[in-house]
Amino acid sequence: MKAGLSGRRWLLAAVCCTAVSFSIHAAWMPIKAKVAQQLLERSWQKTLAGDTEAKPWPWADTRAIAVLEIPRLGLREVILEGSSGRNLAFGPTLLNNTQMERTTDRILSGHRDTHFKFLQYLETGDLLRLQTSGDTRDYRVTWLETVDSRRQQLVIEEGLERLTLLTCYPFDSPLAGGPLRWVITALPVERDTG
Amino acid sequence: MPQIKYPDDLYEPPETASIRDLLEQQAWRQNPGLARRLAARVSRRLKSRKTGNRRVMHWKHRTLLSLAVILASLLIIRMEAAIAQEQTGQPIWGLLLHSDSGAYTQLAIDTDVQIDITGLIARVEITQQFSNSGSQWAEGTYRFPLPQGAAVDRMRIRVGERILEGEIQEKETARRVYQQARDNGQTATLVEQQRRNQFETRLANIGPGEAIEVTISYLQNISYSDFSYHLRIPMTFTPRWTPGRQHVDLKPAPKPQLLPASNSNDHALSLRANLASTVEFAAIESRYHDVDIQKSAHGYHIELLDPYAVADRDFELSWTAVQNTAPSASLSTYYDGESVYAQLMLAPPLEEAIVLQAREVILIIDTSGSMEGPSLSQAKAALLHALKSFGPDDRFNLMEFNSETDVLFDRSVPVNHTSLDDARRFIRGLSANGGTNMAPALKIALGLPELEGLMRQVVFITDGAVGNEADVLKMVAGDLGDSRMFTVAIGHAPNSWFMRKVAEIGRGSHVHIAKPDEVKEQMSALWGRIQVPALTDICVDWGGSAEYYPEIIPDLYAGEPLWLIARLDSEPTMIGLCGRFNDRDWDLTVNGWDVASGIPGGDNLAILWARKKIEALEDGLLFGADRELTELEITSLALDHGLLTRHTSMVAVDKTPRRSVDDTLAQSNVRGLLPAGASATLANYPSTATGWQAQLLLSLFVLLLATLMLWFSGSRLPSANLSSWSRPSPL
Questions:
Q1: Inter-chain residue contact A143 with B669, CB threshold 8 Å
Q2: Which listed residue, of A127, B150, B278, B420, carries a Cα 20 to 30 Å from B683's Cα?
Q3: pLDDT score recorded for residue B191
């Protein structure tokens, strides 16, 4: 009888340990997101200073290519190159797998529970400032909408001046992998309204 | 109740003891430990059955707990599903009318479809009629489903007496014209095609009882699969009232009045199609409609048989060419008064007529960090599959690249057990890490010593972005030699342009796989295809100066025809073709007099040619062509041929001046202000949630549960243990 008992205690202990490691793993995600942004910020400053090969950490398969600022919310996010799941953990990425300067229709995607959490607070008329190594451009939020990723695809239209921010929806859903996306479209602020 | 033996019984065997009982007693005496354990188990089982004490409570608790867990997870899933249901919904096809009294969808009264098919392209013109059956002035949004890859380039809207006609204009001019018209109180719209499979435009000021007629026209590519050509025109106008977020400002809408298809011939559909061809087709089929097929001077004429047909299902037409034992060619031309546009189709022979050629296949795979996850595992499966597609005389080699390049064999090896085993081990051992440095990999692959008599096929699989496109392309072009390049792009939005260009220069083909779960299937198709090159080293003599596309003519593969489009100075008399077929020189002459010219929809050829030309001009920019000159040239080509490009857009202006100035158009944020570009690409939405909160919550919950259970088991079970052992051990 004793053997069976302690077996079950061991099992419970094992469950406890797994649960602890899972919670650490889960808690690590937002920490990683924050730390990566710090490192990226550093490499971005280097990039601005002229070092085009600056890597945020030595083994990185990505680099900082722009900074998105939201003056109203006082936020600043470093944008990464290459929209892969791995990069999304470090920061919002440019979806058009190319250089920021080469595309006019810029699409940024980020995790709704880390870097792009603030997307839920954006309203039409908000100012977005995108700084690339070449120039700084202001956009104004024009449309907010939800789309179903099972039914629709993104249209990238080169030649169109546009900034799109997208993240998963709903924001407070505890589960990942839902089909809905929150899409914010911003158009450039015209220098003269003629 | 079963006969149970307690430890006491060991001394007093029952009077009617059988041999089995005696044997058991003996065994127990010899092994008291076992006896005790067995007895304890039995007594516990008995106890719980008799008294239903703590033990049962425990089970109840557990059941309750598991129920709670299930309920909680169900709740979460239900929440997600409910939100999804609320927010999704197809756009309503047809005309959505907004007026002061609400909004409702107006379905087309009549639909008329005219299709002209020339080669690999179809011109589709759709005319739909509506009426504003309300008693108030209304604003309308017209939506129409479009097939993949179609762009509306002609549009005419008739609202009452006014006609709005779409015109291709230079972008800035279009915007000015629109603004001017708006300020003058005229009705105007700029065409919008925000989503690739949906045409949408807004109309203002529709009077009560007024009739509206919308004509849109687009070019659509013909798809080819399973040895047949297919054309599908979406026509399901299934209305569903789920406008969601976009129309929150609207008052509750009256339910759309829907007439069942059977008792109305108001929603009639008429459809005519011309299929231009100089060759006979083995079969022509319409999948969902009964049609009448007639042979005409320029090919075939197809018409709907049912005069009471309604637009309630898609129209799909497919046709199959006759296959010969040798490659064949057919030519059609169009003369626009200035130049001749010619389309030459090369049809491959039957697969049985092709002698398999020995190949050298070099597989290159990207193992940079971004390939991690399903992309790499699917690609690995596809590579393993590729090993099975090699013929006995083929040779092969494998390479991976990330920051570094790693080649499996120094030179390509024959297909045998050892080499295949090595390859399999190599593939299974691939893991994703590091950067994407593709130039050295391509250089090494193209620099491997060429093998006499073998056709080299390089298959290049990546998801990566290339920064120095032009340099890499130049390098490939320089080192290519006689190799063929096949490129496979995986992911949301890889640099498809670069990959397509590499394949074009390398006389191969390009595949873009957007979803990782499609990698295996699409790659298998590729392996099968490149196994059977039918006609290689193709050359064409147009009999005069000709500007033709593709500029580098690819090889012809079994089951897939090849199309060339050219602009010539005059009608061709003789066109000479040459190539290598079944390891022998092959040639063919196409007589200019047999040509199908003046075919209906022939102007498609001019548009097709202009599109290719614009593409080539845009490519030239990367190789250092003058930007201003190129843009001028593109704009003039686009205006000549009525094409939407990034330098032109379509504006629709009321041709009839309005009598009074109406202010209903003073709407801000009409989404239609964005012109549709001809260079749009599609991408899938990435997954953008880590779900760390859920994971944290769930694991903390499990932790709590496990700790509780541990605590309970620690305090109570030993006492349960004692109760069954009140007597001292008898032995």
A1: yes
A2: A127
A3: 64
What CATH architecture is B328-352+536-636? Sandwich (2.60)
Q: Is B139 in CB contact (< 8 Å) with chain A?
A: no
B7 burial type by CB count under 10 A (0-12 exposed, 13-18 middle, 19+ buried) = buried
pLDDT at B523: 86
Instruction: Tell me the pLDDT tens digit for each residue of B233-274.
Output: 877 543 322 222 333 333 333 333 333 333 344 567 888 998
Residue A193: predicted pLDDT: 41
Contact B492 A155 (CB under 8 A): no
Q: Looking at domain A32-188, which of 2.30.42.10, 3.30.70.1520, 2.40.260.10, 2.30.30.240 is its CATH number? A: 2.40.260.10
Average pLDDT (B13-31) is 68
Chain B residues touching A173 at Cβ < 8 A: 76, 79-80, 83, 689
pLDDT of res. B76: 57
Using the beta-carbon criterion (under 8 Å), do A148 and B87 form an inter-chain contact?
A: yes
By the CB < 8 Å criterion, does B721 face chain A? yes
CATH of B94-322+650-673, one of 3.40.50, 3.30.460, 1.10.8, 2.60.40: 2.60.40
Q: What is the pTM of this model?
A: 0.60
> Domain locations in chain A?
32-188
Which of these CATH numbers, 1.10.10.10, 3.40.50.410, 3.40.50.720, 3.30.565.10, describes B357-531? Answer: 3.40.50.410
How many cross-chain Cβ pairs, A to B, lie less than 8 Å apart?
A: 237
Strands B223-225 and B228-233, by their bridges, are antiparallel
| Nearest-angstrom CA–CA distance, B412 and B417 | 15
Residue B317: φ, ψ to 5°: -120, 135
User: What pLDDT score was predicted for residue A32?
Assistant: 87
- Give the residue from B131, B100, B117, B118 showing the smallest Cα distance to B214: B131
Q: Is the model's pLDDT at B162 over the cut of 90?
A: no
Buried b vs exposed e over B347-383: b needs ≥16 C-beta within 10 Å? bbbeeebbeebebbbbbbbbbbbbbbeebbbbbbebb
The average confidence (pLDDT) of chain B is 74
Residues B198-228 have pLDDT tens digits of 676 766 667 777 788 888 888 887 877 667 8
Which ipTM score applies to this complex?
0.75
Query: Which of the four pLDDT bands, split at 50, 70 and 90, describes residue B176?
Result: confident
Helices H, strands E: what count in chain A? Answer: 2, 9
Residues 487-516 of B with CB under 8 A from A: 491-495
Does residue B525 contact residue B585 with C-beta atoms inside 8 Å? no
Per-residue confidence (pLDDT) for residue B457, from 0 to 100: 93
Compute the nearest-CA separation of B369 from chain A (Å).
Answer: 6
Of B467, B493, B687, the CB nearest to A177: B687
- Predicted pLDDT at B723: 42
Task: Tell me the pairing of strands A136-148 and A127-132.
Answer: antiparallel
Q: Locate B301 and state its tokens.
A: 């004429």
Minimal Cβ distance to B710: which of A9, A155, A178: A9
- Report the SS3 class of residue B23: helix
**B694, A109: Cβ pair inside 8 Å?**
no
